[in-house]
Amino acid sequence: MMRGTNLQQQEATSSSATTEDISTSTIVNNQQDGGIATQEKKWTSGNTSIDFSKVELYYDQVSSWQLLKTYTALTSCRLPGVRTIGAEILEKGGPVVSQAVKYSYFQYFCGGETLPKTKKAIVDVTQNKKMHCILDYSVEGPVQPLETSVINVDSSEVVEDSICKVIAESIEFMGEQNRAMKRDGINEPLPCPFGVVKVTGISSCILLERLSKILCYVQLFPESEHAKKLLNTNIYFFGDIASDVSTFDLMKEYTVKQYPRTVAFNLNENTPPEPLSQVELTKLGRVIQRLTMLCDACVKNGMSLLVDAEQTYYQAAIDQLYMMMSIKYNNKEILKNRQTPVVYNTYQMYLKDALHRLQFDYHFLTQNGLHHGSKLVRGAYMKSETIRSNEMGIPYPFQQTLLETHVNYVRGVEFCLDNLYSEGNIGVLICSHNQDTLGMSSRLLTEKYGFEKKDPRVMFAQLYGMGDNLSHALVYHGYNVGKYVPFGSVTDVMPYLARRLIENGDMLSGSTVETQRIRSEIVRRAAIYSKAVYSKIVQFMEERKNQSSPPPTATASQ
């Protein structure tokens, strides 16, 4: 069965939906005991206390030149062919393309090629825009279009080590920026609060896929003799790798109890995947060492580590790695002098299983005396995942409509804030470019739960160069706002930019409201400038006229 219709429906809605288009929805409040109660809420502009249209206020500190650059960049991304032809050109690369990208989109959507070159972007975000900077080394592992039966992994440990080193250096670099800004009188929350890791950058993609397939099999057929055999081969973090017995026991419990996720593989109970080989276990041990190094760097610098979500056929392994790091770092001993968790997992709320996984992870951690870090995003792999599910004949993993994704997203936000209010043991990063989602979330934060807008445990975030009208509005109203700033060499970042065009093209093409508001602000400023120029010209002409008039004639009596 083809799922193209659902994909097209979501894209079409994403490109054209406005606040008024979204009708009444049912928000589900998930209770501590796992039960579900329903509560009717209106998904309309009436659910936000922020008027995002007041661009003359929000762009007050933004130069007209910067507004013009923003308008040009976003408008060009919506031109016919840019999403398809442009993405193909980016993927193929080459010196000419690299130079063209370097002096166009790269400058607008990325912070720089090296860490020192990101300083300008950091200053722009933290001091000019009054936001928080989240540096993201945007090097990703190669996408595996279909599942693979390869068992021996031959990926380059040197490349994975080098990527991990750069990420660790970026954490140290941001830590130094935090200390420097604090010396200059910029206080908490940290100007640069997060480091970011894409696990596919520090691990073999095939290894992650293999591990995910094993985990999915164990969770799908828990009573199978094959599953029990796989569990007995140290799959749950892996006796010889786990640092202590308590971690091993918790990881075993997590693996066995985990909520059944959307299956990303063709699995049959009688044909189980092969256990990880000793070579793969050794490589997995190196991945854990790299993640540990990054978490240590974050602890040292008072920061947190965001573990990015990736394709569904890697996600089970990524969740498992996140849980292991959480057991080690999100405990009360390490957090006693911190306000936020050390490690955050990412949940793509367009996935059908995302809310249940978020709930399960939170309850599992907190019931064991640990804290949970959650980053909520819509998701960025719809096209590639849809193609894969069609080719493999596996279930379509996404919500059926964009509205369902929006509702699921706010359910996730409400779940996190509800537990932050009642228990105080969760941190949440709300990453969204949807005006309604942000308005609803901000209202939940301040009006329903009564949190301070600057509570360091809650932050909103958007991508650098995108959604600036939303970011500025949130800052204007006093909320914590972060900007994801990608960096890396043009060659390394081009796959990232290509994927942004392909996977987030609907978001770019849906930026019509933003570009319209920017255009209105440019026109407003131009009108003011024209009026001022006209007044100056009139004044100048009057002065010239007065200067050229003859002096008054003397009277006879004089």
From TrEMBL:
Q: GO biological process: any one? A: L-proline catabolic process to L-glutamate
Where is each Proline dehydrogenase domain found?
256-509
Pfam families reported for this sequence: Pro_dh
Q: Which GO terms describe its molecular function?
A: FAD binding; proline dehydrogenase activity
Required co-factor(s) are: FAD
Q: Where is this region: Disordered?
A: 1-31
UniProt KW keywords? FAD, Flavoprotein, Oxidoreductase, Proline metabolism
Q: Which GO terms describe its cellular component?
A: mitochondrion
Family the entry assigns: Belongs to the proline oxidase family.
Q: What does this protein do?
A: Converts proline to delta-1-pyrroline-5-carboxylate.
Protein name, as recorded: Proline dehydrogenase
**What taxonomic classification does the UniProt entry list for its organism?**
Eukaryota, Discoba, Heterolobosea, Tetramitia, Eutetramitia
